[in-house]
Design goal:
This protein is an alpha/beta fold and 243 residues long. It has 10 helices and 5 strands.
């Protein structure tokens, strides 16, 4: 076989093996939305009223453990979340999922200590279950922007673009309540508002740290403490909390 024919055969084989989603990405084609993404987006036709009391709000507190801290290059290893309604937290509502991860980072393994999860979720099943679990609830996390960026990247192959939920970062909520609404957050001491530091300040024991489910549970406890402080400062409804 000639070199040209040989190369042609190789390229034909490669293209026959490539997932069409990757070809769509390379060619700049729009990725169609999966049915579970459409179902998620349909849940936001009605917005939360600004006057709804905090005691009636639904929160989902989440966390991810990842191979590193670069959303472009790193991947989610595990996802943990728990739900709150106002000032109560049903422990049975907590979930934890492990994902198939193509790359592990030696430094990140030292933190989360996850090498080979016993049971992992296929990506599509994880996306469907996760979006169904979150629904239209208020998303909460500590340094939540990173977690959302990682989750959005993970769900891109299914036509997902971004979360539509209201979002609260407990890091910035703590700053607001402690320093006042006009505090310049860029001047805050980073270590003072790390999850460990804030939890310690509010008397929350640092159990099961650096697991997705454990950190979600810690953050949920922190949120309840902060919501009670917010109430003493006259923040008693969704409009006052989310501004």
């Amino acid at each position: 076989m000639s070199f040209r024919k040989s190369c042609g055969s190789v390229f034909n084989w490669i293209f026959s093996q490539v997932d069409m989603g990757w070809l769509d990405f390379i060619l700049g084609k729009k990725t169609p939305k999966s049915s579970f993404v459409e179902a998620y987006e349909s849940g936001f036709e009605k917005k939360i009223s600004d006057v709804r009391p905090i005691s009636e709000l639904l929160f989902v507190v989440l966390d991810t453990e990842t191979t590193g801290f670069n959303p472009k290059n790193d991947h989610i290893i595990s996802f943990g979340a728990i739900k709150l309604k106002g000032f109560s937290m049903p422990v049975a509502s907590g979930i934890e999922r492990y994902l198939d991860t193509p790359v592990q980072n030696r430094e990140s393994v030292k933190v989360h200590e996850i090498l080979y999860p016993i049971e992992t979720s296929p990506l599509k099943d994880f996306g469907k279950d996760m979006l169904n679990y979150i629904g239209s609830d208020i998303i909460v996390g500590h340094h939540i922007g990173f977690d959302l960026a990682m989750l959005e990247k993970t769900l891109q192959p299914f036509g997902f673009k971004k979360f539509l939920n209201p979002v609260i970062d407990t890091k910035y909520l703590a700053m607001r309540l402690e320093k006042g609404p006009h505090f310049d957050q860029s001047t805050a001491i980073k270590e003072e508002y790390a999850l460990d530091a804030v939890c310690t300040r509010y008397g929350i024991e640092l159990d099961d740290r650096h697991t997705a489910a454990g950190d979600a549970f810690l953050t949920a406890q922190l949120l309840m403490k902060l919501l009670k402080i917010a109430a003493t400062k006259g923040i008693k409804d969704f409009g006052g909390l989310i501004r």
